[in-house]
Amino acid sequence: MKKIIFKKIKFLSLNENEFFKIIKKNGLFVFPSGPGLSSINKDNIYLKALQNSDYVFFDSGYFVLLLNLLKNIKVKKFSGYLFIKLFLSYLENKEKKLLLINPNKKLSISYIRYLKKIGIKPNMIFNYIAPFYDTKKLHDKKLLRLVNKIKPDYILINIGGGIQEVLGSFLKKNIRFKKKIFCTGAAIAFLTSDQAPLSYFIDKIYLGWLFRIIFNPKIFLPRYLKSFSLISIVQNEKIKVISNY
């Protein structure tokens, strides 16, 4: 396992086998996208949320390639898609409470149906439909009351990037018991086919972005075009590598 310090964000480079070690840790887990990382010089709230995270993974194949090409730093991609597949497999037949934070009722129904289908016990699944959040003044008392009442073993945040990390940071600061908060965004939607159907192979060869554009070009093409600014950010940033972390 290797740690990469980029803009004071602590990224972890790990392989699939190391997942079973990291999943036992408590804290805030985030998977920033290429478009998300391209905004960090302009969005200080988002940047602070990433810096406040305990485990930051290389979800973006684009970022992985830039580190290799521009800085000669080799890291391993570990996407939210891969994480959610491993996590849900790990969770099967376990008496662990899972709280889903979803963007709307339609996706909530789809996600809960999928979880039941793969063997997650219905009485272990809890759901919260998130309101529209303003990241500049994000505070959700209703969610905090629910979390403190349920005391879930895992909190899975399935809302949009840029917001989910700020919400995760808010929960980390305000929940008093030990918690595991996963900001995997739309990753579960790849499994339910609510987003572009994705395979292990497509994810492995860094083409998830292309399938998302094909599936919904109006939303994802402009988003990915904006990520070109990440080139200059990586080029101009001093990056620290800590081996054998």
Q: What's the overall geometry?
A: globular
Tell me the strand order in the biggest sheet.
6-5-7-8-3-4-2-1-9
N-to-C SSE string, H for helix and E for strand: EEHEHHEHHEHEHEHEHHHHHE
Q: Could you name the ranges where pLDDT drops below 50 across 5 or more consecutive residues?
A: none
Overall structural class, as computed from helix and strand content, comes to: alpha/beta
Nearest-integer average pLDDT: 91
Number of strand segments: 9
Give the radius of gyration: 17 Å
The percent range for strand residues is 15-25%
Report the span from N to C terminus: 5 Å
Total tally of structural domains: 1
- Tally of contiguous helical segments: 13
Tell me the helix content: 40-55%
- Outline the biggest β-sheet: 9 strands, mixed
Report what the structure shows:
It contains 13 helices and nine strands. By secondary structure, the chain is an alpha/beta fold. α11 packs across α12 (217-225). 36% of the residues are buried.
Tags for this entry?
245 residues, alpha/beta, 9-stranded mixed beta sheet, 13 helices, 9 strands, globular
Q: What does the secondary structure layout of this molecule look like, with pairings?
A:
Blueprint: E1 2-6, E2 9-13, H1 19-22, E3 27-30, H2 34-37, H3 44-51, E4 55-57, H4 61-71, H5 80-91, E5 98-102, H6 105-117, E6 125-129, H7 141-150, E7 154-157, H8 164-174, E8 180-183, H9 187-192, H10 200-204, H11 208-215, H12 217-225, H13 230-236, E9 240-242
Helix pairs in contact: 3-8, 4-13, 11-12
